[in-house]
Amino acid sequence: MGDSNPTSRISVHQALGGGPVADVLLWRKWCGGVVMLVSSTTLWYLFERAGYNFLSFVANVLLLLVVILFFWAKSASLLNRPLPPLPNLEISEKTVGKVADELQVWINFALSIAHDIAGGRNLKLFLKVAVCLWLVLYIGSLFNFLTLVYIGVILGLSVPVVYDKYQHHIDEKLSVAHTIILTQYRKIDETVLRKFPLPSNKEKKMQ
User: Fold this and answer.
1) How many angstroms separate the CA atoms of 133 and 135, rounded?
2) What is the DSSP string of 11-45?
3) CA-based angle 146:40:60, to the nearest 5?
4) Could you tell me the sign of the dihedral formed by the alpha carbons of 155, 158, 163, 166, in that order?
5) What pLDDT digit, counting tens, does each position of 37-69 carry?
6) In this structure, are residues 20 and 29 in contact, taking their beta carbons and an 8 Å threshold?
7) Triad 141, 128, 134: Cα angle to 5°
8) Which of 7, 25, 19, 204 lies closest to 115, judged by CA?
9) For the segment 75-91, what is each residue's pLDDT rounded down to a tens digit?
10) Distance of alpha carbon 182 from alpha carbon 194, whole angstroms
């Protein structure tokens, strides 16, 4: 009964952070969504279809930007015009600390998984990681990195909108699929995984 109550569910906008990024992904700010879609499509076309080199592109853009700013500043000083508006180009210690803390959490999480797998303590975790890595390897063999990023951008601009519009129906289908997958996983766990010997507590202490 509690699941059927719409007020108990977290909206897609809140799940995405509820900020400007969520507004762009849900197309509540059309300008941001259009800019992101057009810019990603343009970059993908330049590098993937037109054969433009990434390093050359970045160098040309930076060179053009530096030349424009330099001559803008020189002309402003000669004509007594205001200098080009430039933001404060520095990263605060608070921002660096937040990024470092977030990286520490993810790195420690990955290291804990690697430690459990290397110690042979968790066969289920090993199989999950192996399957995920195999999927990444298979998808990577179908697309190059740039195309994969572009597909991710397209999915990021389309999947949240579709899910936000048809959340109730999608949740029902996902619930059925989750039940089926969980049932099959339990069968595999009972018939296969539990037959593999795992190191005992005494062996772990010896290690």
Assistant:
1) 5
2) PHHHHTTSSHHHHHHTTSSHHHHHHHHHHHHHHHI
3) 85
4) negative
5) 999 998 888 888 877 787 888 888 899 988 988
6) yes
7) 10
8) 204
9) 877 777 777 676 666 77
10) 16
